[in-house]
Structure of P-type Ca(2+) transporter:
Amino acid sequence: MEWYRESIENVIKKLSSNKDTGLSNDEANKRLKEYGLNELEEKGKSSIWTKIIAQFKDFLVLILIGASIISIAVGEVTDSIVIIAIVIINAALGIIQEGKAEKSLEALRKMASPNAKVIRDGDKNIVPANTLVPGDIVLLEAGDIIPADLRLLESSNLKVEEASLTGESVPVEKNAETILDNEVSLGDRENTAYMNTIVTYGRGKGIVVGTSENTEMGKVAKMLKTFEDDTTPLQKKLDQLGKYLGLGCLVICGLVFLIGIFQGRNLLDMFMIAISLAVAAIPEGLPAIVTIVLALGMNKMVKKHAIVKKLSAVETLGSTTVICSDKTGTLTQNEMTVVKVYAGNNFIDVTGKGYEPNGEFLINNENIALEENNELNTILSISSLCNDATLNYSEEEKTYKIIGDPTEGSLVTLAEKGGLKKDVLNKKYPRLNEIPFDSDRKMMTTFHENFINGKIVSFTKGAPDIVLDRCNKIYLNGIEKPLTNDIRKSILDANSSFSKEALRVLAFSFKTYDSIPKDISSETIEKDMIFVGLVGMIDPPRTEAIESIKTCKNAGIKTVMITGDYKETAFAIAKDLGIAENIDELMVGGDLNNISDDELKEKVKNIKVYARVSPQHKVRIVEALKANGEIAAMTGDGVNDAPALKKSDIGVSMGITGTDVAKSTAEVILTDDNFASIVSAVEQGRIIYSNIRKFVFFLLSCNIGEILIVFLSILFHLPIPLLPIQLLWLNLITDSFPALALGLEKGESDIMKISPRDPNEPILDKTMITGILVQSIAITLATILAYLWGLKNYGIENIIISRTIAFTTLITAELIRAFSSRSEKHTLFEIGFFTNKTLVYAVLVSSSLLLIVLYIPVFQTIFRTYPIDLKAWSIVLRFCLIPIVAGEINKIILKKLND
C-alpha cells in the first residue's frame, strides 16, 4: 500500500493504532505472530556437495571422466588415474576460489537497527527492532537508525540521511503533514521514513507501516533472491568450445574406428586406438590452466586495489563495454564541500578536498588576505557558530570525519580552512540561545555574546531568497549599508549563477543587540537583518575519476552515471566528470516508469546520466544494456545498488564506504574506493583474456596436431606412433607448464587503446583458426617425418625407439614454439626471445620432465620410452624447428595482409 498518499488519520485508522498510547503489549505480541519478526529471511546456503557437483558440470570435464571410465574398462588403469587426478585438482581449485556462500541477505539483516524507541500501552519503551509490528508508534531522534518503514506522524526539523537507499547525498527534510496525491519516487516521499536510513537532525514520531520484507529494504532483498548468477562470456565460450571439441572427438574417433575395422585391423586394438585419439583430442589441462591463470590474475588485482571474489569475474572485467556507476561516493567524494563564496561583491573560490581543513581562498586565482576581508571572516564565523556539526580527526583511520549534518559539516570545514576552529570560537563567543532550523522557515538562528563591540549578535543562515527577503542592510567593507534594489539584484544574480553550477546555496546574515532579547521568535528576530554573503557547496567529483573516465573513452568503454540526485545536480557533476555534454543525454527516473522495456532498450544507447532513480530503475537500465549485447559493469556502495550489482555482468563495490550488502553482492571490491582502480582492473582483465587466447591457441594446435598424427598413421596403415599414456603426459604435464607461463604475459602496450572486443566474438576467431591450422600441420609434419625416419633406421621390430623419437620430437617442438605463441601479431624479434622469464623456467622444467621419462628406468616402463642416442637427438632437433618457423612466417604474412 502507498502509505505516503494517505493522511495521518487514515493511516492510524487502517492500522488500528493510537498516536498517543500506541499498541498494547498484547496486541503487539498478537501481530508479531501474524507478521513475523522484523528481519529479512536468509537465502539457503549451498551444501558442500552441491558446490562439488557444480565443479563437474563442465563439458570438457565430463568427457574426461568418460575417458577415464573407458580406460579402466580396457585395463588402462594408469591413464585413468592421471585423468581423474587432474579433474580432482581442477575441482578443488574451483571450490577454494569460489566456495564462499551468498551473504547478501545475511548482511541486509545485520544492517537493521538492534533497538527501537516505541510507545506501547501509553509508555515509552525500548524494544528489539526485530519485534516491531505494523501499527507500532516509534520515536525518532538525531543519530537513530530507523528500524522499519514509517509513515511520519510528527516532525520537528527532521532530516534523514537516505544515501544508502536512494543515492541522494544530502539529507532529506521530512514533513509529517505532507500528503502526496500522486505517485512519487522514493527520494521525494517527505512524509515517510525508511528502514536503515539515519536521522541526522531534529526529532519525529512515526507509525510502522512495513516490517521485514514489506519494507523498501525488503524489496531489495526480494530482488536479490530472484536473481540467478548469469554465465560469464568466458564460461559460455569455453563451454561452447568444449562441446565442439567433444563432438568433433566422437566423430573422429568413430571414423578412425570404422576405417581400422574396414582395413581388417584387430577390434580391441582399434578400440584402444580410438581411446588414444580421444585423449589426443581433449585438452585435458585446459580447465585447470584457466582456473590457475584466473586465480593468479586475482592476486595481481589485489595489488591494484581490487579484490575479485569469483574467478570468472576476472575475465568478465576485461570484456566490459559499459560501466554503470553510482554517483555518491563513487564518482564523487560523498563529502559536501564549499567551493564558492560570494561576499563583498566578490566571487571567492575555495580550494581543498572534502572534510580536510586545508585550502585557499582565491579571487581571480590570487590568494586573499583573510584578516583584511571582514565579510569573508564574518561568513566563516557564522559558518562555525551557527552550526551543530563537529569536525573530528580519527587517529585510527588517519582522516577527518563529520559528526552531524553533511551540509553543516562543510561549513565547519570552511571555517577551519580560514583558521577558525569551532571549539575555540564557541569558548570565545558562547551560544546564548537559538531558533532551530525548520522546513517551513528554512532558516536557523543562534545568539552569541561579545562578537561585535561587546554586543549580543544573532547569526542566521538559510535559503537565499528567504534570508535576503528579511534583510534591509548589507555588510560591505566592514560597514553596514542600505540594501538597495541594485545590490539585491546582484545578490540574486550571484545565487542564480551558483545554482546553475548545481551548487547548494546558503545565505548568511546577522543582527546586533545591546542585550539578549526577551522575545526570541522568528517573527521578532529574523527580520531587518544585515546580509553578509552566500556560500555554494557541492559533493565534488573525484579528480582521479575524471582521468579514469578519459581512459575508459580511449578504451572504447562507455561510462554511465546513475544517481538518486536531482536532474540539475546530476548533469552538472556528469559534465564536470566528462561523462555527458548536453542535457539530452540525461533521463529522469520518473520517465522510466512511462516507457516499455523495448523503448528503454533503444534509449540506453544514447543516455549517459540517470537521475532520481530507484533500485528497480537501476535493474531495468542494466537489463536493457545487456539486451543490447553490452557487457555491463555496475559500481556502487549503497544498499540501493545491490540489485543492479547482482544483475549486472560484473558488480563492483566500494570497500571503504560500501555497505555490507553491496560488498557481499558484488564480484569485485575496490579496497581504496577509487574509481580509477576499476580501470586498472579492466586492463588486467583484458590482459588475462588475451593470455587465455594465447594458451588456448598453444594447447589446441598441439592437440589437433596429435589428432592428425594418429589419424594419418591409421589412414596410411602405419603402426600408432603415440600411445595414450604418452599423449596424456604431453597434454597434462609437459604442455601445461608453458601454457601456464603464457598466461602470465604482461600484455600488449596498447591494450587500453583499443575498443572492447565483440561480446559475441568466439575465442577461436579467424586469426587464431589460421594460426592453429598452420601450427598443427607443421607439428604433424615434424613428428611424422621423425617417426618415419625412426621406422626406416630401426625397423618395425624396434618400434619403441621410433615412438620415442616421435614423442620427443613432438614435445621439443611444443616447447620451442611456445616462445612464438607469446604474441598473435608480433614476431619473436619484436617481443624478445627471453622477455618472459616465467616461460623460460617453464620450458626448462618441462625439458627436465622429458629427460626423466626418457632416461629413468621406472618411467621408461610406465611411459614405454627408450633412452635415445645422440644420432636420434640430431634428427629430433632438426625437425622440431619446423613449427616455430612456420608460426613466425604466418605472423609476417597475416600482418602484411592486414596492413
Summary: The chain has a mean pLDDT of 84. The radius of gyration is 36 Å. The CA atoms of residues 524 and 569 lie 35 Å apart.
